[in-house]
Amino acid sequence: MDEIAASPQRAYPVVREATEFATAAYKFDGKGNVAQVPFEHEPVAGPERGFVLIAGSLSSPQFKSWLKDHLDPSAAEGLTATDQHTRCIVVDDRALIVLRIVRSRSDPDELSKQTMSIWIEKNRVIIASKLAITELVSIAAWQASKHAPLTPADLIARMGTRAADRIEPLVEHLGDLLDGIEEAMMSERDEQQRQKLTRLRRSIINLRRVLWPQRDVLNTLEIEDLSFLSARDRARLKEASARSARLGDELQVLAERAALIHEQVLDTRAEQMNRTMLVLTAATVIAMPMTVVSGLLGMNVAGIPFNQNPEAFWFVVLGLAALGTGMVWFMRARKWL
User: Fold this and answer.
1) Hey, what CATH topology would domain 278-333 get?
2) pLDDT-based confidence at 9, cuts 50/70/90?
3) String of b and e for 35-63 (b: at least 16 CB within 10 Å)?
4) Helices in 188-311 by DSSP H: which ranges?
5) Beta strands at 51-57 and 24-28: parallel, antiparallel or unpaired
């Protein structure tokens, strides 16, 4: 348990923003093969069968200039816009897709995300991002296995699946953290555990903001009436969407568990406060009659009974003790204590 409770302090490598990378073009022949082709800053047309992928950096002025020169103004603006939200917009027989990709080895407390804007046509896909395409999918593995995407939609489905794969270890890690916090809260109930619970709930919210919109994007692309989407493409998109939805459901369960633990903490603190107030109130009620009697006997006036009797003090003490004991017995009999 100590290892789990201490896991939020686990060291993560520093994730830095991607530097500018060279624009790359890849030709997919529609049969599972992919090859890199030269990118000469000229229009890159898609082949009759298969498609071409062009991936460039948003930090590159040359690539931004190429987008403005060879795409519709609306498409170029959509690809290069900053601070974009995850969405899918269909324009004629083309679509603009924006995904938020979690950087690999991200710290759950400080989730590092990167926007990836994708323009998809019948035989061409253009990606603009500060995250290189090779950081998300392994094109070299596709070349070796000859199992590359067959269509643009197939590529989007695989990218969506890989984006979900990056989040899955974080979800499992958050589940382990929640188990440790829950056990620690049962035994310790210290302020440090409450702070850990607060950070964990924030991390869950951040991950849900990534997963649920991604699921909606894949669902939207699946149901849109694009001419180049085949039944196989729609099935792959549905599968990728289901994977995101499953992880989203797991996050929902974690969020509900975290909320229940938080409520339990609040109930425990309220119960402790009520118990303390009950004890203080009982002490006040028990002491009140004794205070009245001692106050009366302590008045500096004539006529105080037994003021000349040397044994009177002990009689009064015994009487007050008996009175207090009787009050305690009465409260316990009524189950007030």
Assistant:
1) Methane Monooxygenase Hydroxylase; Chain G, domain 1 (1.20.58)
2) very low
3) eeeebeeeebebeeebbbbbbbbbebeeb
4) 191-223, 231-297
5) antiparallel
